[in-house]
Structure formats: C-alpha cells, structure tokens
Amino acid sequence: MTAQAAVAVSLLSVAAPTFASTAQASTIESSQTQSKLNLSTQKKLDPYVTVENNHYVLSENAKKVVSEEEYNAAKQVIAQTNAAVENSGSVINQNTKVATNDFTLSNDENSVVSLNKGELATRRKKYHYGVNKVTYHWNYIRVYLNKTTTQAVAAGAVGGLGALIANYVSGGLATFAVGAISSSVSALVGSSIKGGVWVDYNFLARTVTSCGWQ
Fold this sequence. Notes:
two-stranded antiparallel sheet, 6 helices, 10 strands, 33% helix
C-alpha cells in the first residue's frame, strides 16, 4: 500500500472534517466476512439490477449467471445501498442507475446538470475547479474532489477524503479505499493539478476502476 494509505490510518479518525457529504447515508460495513465479487461477476449481475420505487432490485434470474453465494453477496450490498438512498433522500436515475441528492445526471452520464451551482455554463472549459461530493451505484461510488481537495490528497493529506467517503465505506475498507483513491489521484494529476477530479471506487472488487478530470 502507498504512503497515502499509511497516512489514511491516522487521519480517518479526524473529528472535524474540512467538508462533509450532504448525504447522511448508511455505510458499507467492513466485516471480515463480507464477500468480495470480482468485476466480471458484477458485470454479469448488472443487467439484472433494476430500479423500482427508488430502490435497487436484483432479479432472481441473476441466479442463472452467478452462484448462490455470489447472488446473496450482491443482495446484501444492494440492501445496504438502498438504505443509503433512503436515508440520504437521494433519487436513483432509472436510466443510468446513479443515485444522488444534489444534482441529476442525464442519460449521458458525462453530461452534468447542476441544480444549485450554475455549473452548466462553465462546462465548455476543459478543466473545472469542481465540487466535493459522492454519488453511488449499486456496486461502486463515484468520488468528486474539487481542485483544492485534489491538491491536498496528492500531497498526502487524505483526512478530507476519508471524511467524505465515511458515509459510504467504513472501518478497514475505508482505509483501503482511501489508499486506492489517493494513489489514483496522484497518478492522474502528476505534478500538474489542472482542476478537480473524479474517481470510481468499486467497493465489491475493492479497486479503482476509472478516474478523470471534472
């Protein structure tokens, strides 16, 4: 694990974060018995996850493509995610299957329409200062870090990042997630921090799957 991950162990306990998610969501617990599903298994499951009454639902038909154990592991995670959706007052877009409580995503997931920040007019720029927030899917979270937070994370100060994802990932998994996310941010920005970034962290595979500039 990187140096950032080591720093995360001490900084995740900071009582007063520099910012916090607006969602008071249930956490994805870090029990040692929690199953780990690889990305290929999750890809098989994804078509069987639908949105009904603002909840994620996994069809029984998914048992045709994955084992009983894998199916039950996915059901457990979906139950936790649904609790987060309900507790945070978020809304799941039925087309993208993205849950958020402060902006909506169009059918094109890269097209952002802000409800309260007037960002749309600045979207023609290649890089943006960005925002601090987290949106979530049934199997992963997308973490947005603004330019200032990105600079801090790249420098190894990951307490703010830990506070941001604490509503979604807890315990030992949070420390692992912070290390993986901060490493990806450092690799993306290098020595030139042009703006805010976003990072997709899959909490079932426990890995970063993609990242980019806001």
